[in-house]
Amino acid sequence: MASKVVGVREFDSLIPLLRDRGYDVIGPTVDEGTIVLDHVATSADLPIGWTDHHDKGTYSLDKRADEAYFGYAVGPRTFKRWLYPPRQTILTIEHAETGLVFKPEPTADERYAFVGVRACEIAAMEIQDRVFAHDAFADPHYVERRARSLIVGVNCAVAGETCFCDSMGTGPECTAGYDLVITEVVSGERHEFIVESGTDEGETILTELDGRPTTPADRKEVRTIIEDTAASMTRTMPKDETYSLLTENLEHPIWDSIAERCLNCTNCTLVCPTCFCSTMEDMTDLDGRAVRKRRWDSCFNREFTFLHGHAVRFTTKSRYRQWMTHKLAYWYDQFGTSGCVGCGRCITWCPAKIDITEEIAHLAEQTREEVAT
Amino acid sequence: MVVAPLITDTVTEPMMLRPFEVTAVTQETHDTWTLDLKVADGGDDLRFRPGQFTMMYVFGVGEVPISIAGNPSHPETLVHTVRAVGAVTNAICALRPGTVIGIRGPYGSSWPVVAATGRDIIIVAGGIGLAPVRPAIYHVLEHRESYGSVSIVYGSRTPSDLLYIDEIHDWKSRFDLNVQITVDRGDGTWMGDVGVVTPLLNRLSFDANHAAAILCGPEIMMRVIAKELARRGMPTADVSVSLERNVKCGVGFCGHCQIGASFICKDGPVVAYDDVADRLGMEEL
Q1: Considering only CA atoms, which of A299, A300, A295 is closest in space to residue A265?
Q2: pLDDT digits over A256-294, tens only?
Q3: Residues of B in contact with A88 (CB under 8 A)
Q4: Structural domains of chain B in order of their starting residue, each with its CATH number
Q5: Which residues of A touch B14 (CB under 8 A)?
Q6: Span B215-230, pLDDT tens digits
């Protein structure tokens, strides 16, 4: 595939170019003190010169010393908001004289171009593909949106303090699953974008961007940026150990310790780029018409497991255990992969400052001590 | 990670409802009704395997997962036996012939009646649990010569809670079936067994190494029976149970029915006891 080095002014033609090609462009933008994903029309909408700080239960924006376009890590929104929207009409029901008439909701016409997609988010999309496209059943709305989307990836030049994609093997480099991938180089007077294509559509778009050919020095620069970002991550997840660690410790006291802090607020599941739980809601009006919608749900909600009038998982302990064992263990049985991509959102956005990497480390440590004694 | 390309034009809505007309309603007990339904859109009958379920939708009320209770070789009539316990099941039980409701499915796994060909069959049901195993009973009886000994053990709370009472009499009158019935509490006219189903297993003769067990009832009952069968030498891989959880979508998208690594809607409701034995005893999993 092709590659090119593009200056700032030339790069600014990318988003209009995508819009001209019929794409609804979704990218990062600053809103109410956070970098969120939303519709963007020009480069001016991007979080130019901003960066984000992450810690357990902590998020803040700061001005950078430069004018970097992608000089931040990840915000609270994920691209699943567009591929698997928070509310999706599934069908409409009409109460006609002849009985009931059911009409499936047509799939949407939108073609999204996702700009600024991090490696962890591409990994998350590929995980959701397994849930919504390659399992026993396929969701036509997800499949259609996903197949029509264009992915403009970004290799991360900064890691958030809660990031741990390096240990999950999902980043910080975009290795596949993109149409175009950008590495932003900002140092001193230099501000350029090294753009590579990964598909024919990406290559076509790349030919329309003015730039110079990449040199071995540019490619070395890309490698250095990725390696420095990976090296700067302080959190790790023992990816290969979580399955046995969790499934063998379902009744470990650690769940009580987490339950003392967890508020059941559902934040972790809503910011997670792979969490896919939903519920169904019928909205029936007085004219004999009902609309059935799918709405994001969370395994932390008490009603989630209602059966015969009571919740199967009625304690916080069991609901946290469900989330973590599903994400880091049972996901392997169901979809052949971890459900975690190491984006760190569940750590940043947990108001109780629960950190899954820390909890896994505690569990591993306590299990080792129990074996030793 | 290698992911296959997405093919959009073959994907249709897997949660699509179809209209079904109620053709007959039979009251089984004080709180349980059996509904016969037929397809009302002129399309194909709803073919199913024993043990599968559908989602039943009543306009303006809601939707619930209910196991199919009819005969798999007669898909022209969709049969559901429903106990009125909540808003939706009460609405279903109040339906009258001629009403059209929504049905989607069939969903889920099935009793391994074909794989069990040539084996002795042990069917144990508790309460409303007789309904999900009835399609398996129909299949086994229609292919009676393909199986060894066949036993049906059924327990309910009281004699008036027994389902399909006429059919039970028919089954009891057969010489090629061992039918054992018990109730938790008898009444003035009850001459049969009183107590839990477990001791009745002593009256069954089967080759423990060449049998298949089909269990449906409260989880505690299935656990006790599975352990008793194991004690009698039966490999627990040959024991199937039907599990119940909160099913919303039926197709593995919504997460509500998860227990351990299984989504009950698509990996169940019928699962090998082996696969869930360690999970059934664990609270709140």
Answers
A1: A300
A2: 999 999 999 999 999 999 999 999 999 999 989 999 999
A3: none
A4: 18-107 (2.40.30.10), 120-242 (3.40.50.80)
A5: 137-139
A6: 999 999 999 999 999 9
